[in-house]
Design brief:
The chain is mainly α. It contains 4 helices and no strands.
Length: about 100
């Protein structure tokens, strides 16, 4: 395992922690019912799946894992802001977020 690969894997932790925390903030801003807590638990598990793997990964895999986390965060941001998203945002972030949740 080379230094670049190890650094890429470790860089996921702080970036992912910020995305996860902001996603939880956006989820709980919508409400504090059991449904919101369930969504927060599922989102936390999905973020953990992509950001805390027990195995070392290569640079490309680390990039894909970060893209999955960013796309999941983008979905909660789009739902929270309640604004129309453009076609590029839907194609590059929102649709892949559904695949990321399903794969987790």
């Amino acid at each position: 395992m080379d230094t670049i690969t190890e650094t890429a894997g470790l860089a996921l932790l702080p970036a992912g922690a910020l995305l996860w925390a902001d996603s939880l903030r956006r989820i709980w801003r919508a409400g504090r019912t059991w449904n919101d807590h369930t969504v927060a638990a599922v989102a936390s598990a999905a973020f953990a799946w992509y950001l805390l793997p027990p195995w070392p990964t290569g640079l490309w895999v680390s990039g894909l894992r970060l893209w999955a986390a960013v796309s999941m965060w983008a979905m909660f941001r789009a739902l929270d802001t309640n604004r129309q998203t453009g076609p590029w945002a839907r194609a590059l972030l929102l649709w892949p977020s559904q695949v990321a949740f399903a794969a987790a």
